[in-house]
Write a structure and sequence with these properties.
It comes from Flavobacterium gilvum. Pfam families: Glyco_hydro_92, Glyco_hydro_92N. Its cofactor is Ca(2+). A hairpin with a 2-residue loop joins β11 and β12. This protein has a 9-stranded antiparallel β-sheet. The chain has a 7-stranded antiparallel β-sheet with strand order 1-3-4-10-17-14-15, with no helix packed on it. It has a 6-stranded mixed β-sheet with strand order 19-30-31-35-32-33. The protein is about 25% helix and about 25% strand. The radius of gyration is 26 Å and the shape is globular. By secondary structure, the protein is α+β, with helices and mostly antiparallel strands.
Length: about 775
């Protein structure tokens, strides 16, 4: 589909990266925020069709849109982690106020559609609703959703607005209000109680505000609660509720809506609407959205004759720029944790100096999103960090997931201290460094009165005893988990990242404390089985140990997968395993895992690979293929990283990211982007002087624009000579004319700008890249 998207204006050099994005890829079994084509990068207004969002179970489970479904229940506006609401549906004929079901769409206002009549591209979506003969089109600015509905002739045309039902990840609505506030305007509020807030931040709620401006005055209107309707009622308040507006339309008549959104107030939703939509036509906004995507996507230009890899690349990059959207208004207002309104400082032109963002946690994000954002989008990464620092200044703690100002930590951990340190290590430092360091240090060491929503609920064991014991924890909603071992290795890694921050700032005592914590993974390494193994509080390792068993001590994984989780110190892991066992296990992992497409095979399930040797569909494993660079066999990193790109990643709705595995908020797409360029850092930029290790670049040429505010260079060019599907092995490499003998390079060299050249061949060069392994915690000065 996406390859033919060339309708919008092209730039002079004919470079139109948005045309290579296919939003349908991986949209079978996708997450709530995954499929939102009518939006701009990191926007608040994320408009999308819903096929299975109404009355969803909430939580995190895949929902919203599924490419296998052939009926639509409406078009939603808010799509963020734990946030959803405000659905509009244009219809004709008999008034129905519930959408019906996928199995029986005729029992409600849901409409069937044909795939040939559906079109999605970055910034725009359209579909023909067969039941009603209506063409629906969507686009957006940052905070305003634009709708264009082309109706048939009908005396019973209408638009239904659902505000009172859970949508996607939102969980239950606690109160929703809406009223006709002018002849052709509506406004309202939606308050929800997301599943993760119930145990992370039980006193908080997510609040959404909206203002709707229509270009045609309704002939009549009404409200509803479930299937009960109330004609001529101009407002509604409660749950399970909504409103409808009625029109008589001529054949081909167009009704347009502009919907201003906000997380702070109706007045600010009006301000956002006025600022971003006044005087704007639907078509102009559509073109502008396309150009915004082209600017962001165009910061990395790939050149290749392989159109499949180009589609994979720009679709993955699109996903990495889609999630974690705006929470602040045009005037810099944003929702604080205490329920009040925060205000971002303004510049000399009266504009906010930065934006505030909603976000899922950063669990695993340092291996994909963090590296990508730091390289090509440091302006966004800086603002993303600043958002959390503002939250921490207010509350005293970092979050690892926030929804409209409330803690929404989904993984009971917190990797944001590492993310702050890595950002600093990359030279992105336009925030209060001392404040950033202090809160990052507290994130790794502070456990007294720590709120549950900040994660690391079990940090006291790690700090005081050196490991987290195997024990069940039951939280307020009844969920039970036992993640002591995975948390131990995670916290050791994040401690290392902040230790490097401390070292850079000359904080010797902090550095030594954190470095000791960074070695705590050894306390749960079992020398008998040679696995990371859960231990009880009395020091005994758990009995009946099966390294392939998921969930027993490990979050979303098993001991086999998590034994590799020492990214700060692969050299240290090699030492305790022995180089022969290290390589034997790692080689067997990939030889066997290829048989299951490096994940859960063809099972459509986010957790389908948890009991495998390797699971590319989930974050804990994403560095494994690059460990061969540390163990003297870099050609196997080249082989397996490229093979994963070729086989795990596809270009179909089902086979996009494995088969129905968890693309999350661009995590897996960002991994493809980095690895397809031949660059990856096992340490996630945690080291004070970060490096990139090399894989097997897929493209003939890559040009990355570097931001001069943060980096010395104008651009980084990666050229690959003699490249082909068969020629996956690096024969030699150079940077700016100087030979590279190792399978890694200092990151700063690359961001200073220049040209990195790889010569490729069909057979491994077992003499290249083996001279000196990449830096590791136990081998670095």
């Amino acid at each position: 589909m996406a390859i033919s998207i060339l309708s919008c204006s092209k730039k002079k050099d004919d470079f139109n990266p948005a045309s290579w994005v296919d939003p349908q890829i991986g949209s079978v079994h996708g997450r709530w925020f995954f499929y939102t084509p009518a939006s701009v990068p990191f926007g608040m207004a994320k408009l999308a069709p819903h096929t299975n969002a109404y009355g969803s179970v909430g939580s995190w489970e895949p929902c919203g849109y599924d490419d296998r479904h052939l009926s639509i229940e409406g078009f939603g506006h808010f799509h963020e982690f734990q946030i959803g609401g405000l659905v509009a549906m244009p219809v004709t004929g008999k008034l129905q106020t519930t959408p019906g079901t996928l199995e029986k769409p005729e029992t409600g206002y849901r409409s069937t559609f044909d795939k040939k009549d559906e079109h999605a591209e970055p910034g725009y979506y359209s579909v023909f609703l067969k039941e009603y003969g209506i063409k629906a089109e969507l686009t957006a600015t940052e905070r305003v959703g634009f709708h264009r509905y082309t109706f048939p002739e009908s005396k019973e045309s209408r638009i239904i607005f659902d505000i009172g039902h859970r949508q996607g990840e939102s969980s239950g609505v606690t109160e929703a209000t809406m009223k006709l506030s002018g002849k052709n305007t509506l406004e309202g509020t939606i308050e929800t109680y997301p599943e993760y807030l119930k145990f992370c931040d039980p006193d908080k709620r997510v609040k959404m505000y909206f203002v709707i401006q229509m270009n045609k005055t309704p002939e009549s209107y009404g409200s509803f609660v479930e299937d009960k309707t109330f004609d001529n009622q101009s407002e509604t308040k409660g749950i399970g509720n909504g409103m409808y507006v009625n029109f008589a339309t001529k054949k081909g008549e167009v009704i347009e809506m502009q919907v201003g959104l906000s997380y702070t107030s109706i007045e600010n939703a009006k301000l956002n609407l006025k600022t971003e939509a006044e005087g704007q036509s639907f078509d102009a906004v559509k073109v502008a959205a396309h150009e915004q995507w082209n600017e962001k996507l165009g910061r990395i230009k790939v050149e290749t004759k392989d159109s499949i890899n180009k589609v994979k690349f720009y679709t993955g990059l699109y996903h990495a720029l889609l999630g974690r959207g705006l929470a602040s208004d045009v005037d810099g207002s944003y929702p604080r944790h205490d329920g009040k309104i925060g205000h971002i400082p303004l510049d000399e032109n009266g504009k906010p100096k930065y934006n505030h963002y909603n976000t899922d946690g950063i669990w695993g994000g340092f291996w994909n999103l963090g590296q990508l954002w730091a390289l090509a989008y440091p302006d966004y990464l800086s603002q993303y960090i600043q958002s959390n620092l503002d939250f921490a200044k207010e509350t005293g703690w970092l979050h690892d997931g926030v929804a409209a100002g409330a803690h929404s930590n989904g993984v009971q951990t917190n990797c944001f201290g590492l993310m702050i340190a890595a950002t600093y290590n990359c030279g992105i430092r336009d925030f209060n460094v001392e404040e950033a360091y202090n809160i990052a240090y507290k994130n790794e060491t502070g456990y007294s009165n720590r709120p549950y929503g900040s994660g690391k609920y079990d940090l006291s064991y790690f700090v005081k005893d050196g490991y987290i014991p195997s024990r069940d924890t039951i939280i307020s909603n009844g969920w039970k988990f036992n993640f002591g071992s995975s948390h131990t290795v995670e916290f050791a890694y994040t401690s290392y990242g902040v230790s490097q921050f401390a070292k850079a700032l000359g904080k010797k005592a902090d550095y030594e404390k954190l470095m000791k914590q960074a070695g705590n993974w050894k306390n749960i390494f079992d020398p008998e089985t040679k696995f990371i193994r859960p231990r009880y509080q009395d020091g005994k390792f758990v009995e009946n140990f099966n390294p392939m068993q998921a969930w027993r001590g490990f979050q979303e994984g098993n001991a086999y997968q998590y034994t590799w989780y020492v990214p700060q110190d692969p050299a240290g892991l090699i030492k305790v395993l022995g180089i022969d066992l290290f390589n034997k296990r790692l080689e067997n992992t990939f030889n066997e895992s290829q048989k299951s497409t490096f994940g859960g095979g063809k099972n459509i399930d986010s957790f389908s690979g948890l009991e495998m040797l390797y699971n590319h569909g989930n974050q804990p494993c994403l560095h494994h293929s690059f460990l061969f660079n540390y163990s003297g066999k870099p050609w196997l990193t080249q082989k397996w990283s490229r093979t994963i790109c070729d086989e795990f990643y596809g270009t179909e709705p089902l086979h996009g990211y494995g088969f129905g595995q968890d693309e999350d908020q661009g995590q897996l797409g960002a991994w493809f982007v980095m690895v397809s360029m031949g660059l990856f850092d096992v340490q996630g930029h945690a080291a004070m002087n970060p490096t990139f290790q090399f894989g097997s670049p897929l493209f003939d040429k890559v040009t990355i624009k570097l931001d001069k505010k943060y980096y010395k260079g104008d651009e980084l060019v990666i050229e690959t000579k003699n490249n082909s599907k068969q020629n996956m092995y690096i024969q030699s490499a150079s940077f700016n004319g100087e030979k590279i003998e190792n399978a890694w390079i200092d990151r700063k060299k690359l961001t200073d700008g220049g040209t990195l050249i790889f010569d490729m061949g069909a057979n491994p060069n077992t003499n290249w890249g083996v001279k000196t392994p990449p830096p590791s915690m136990s081998t670095s000065k």
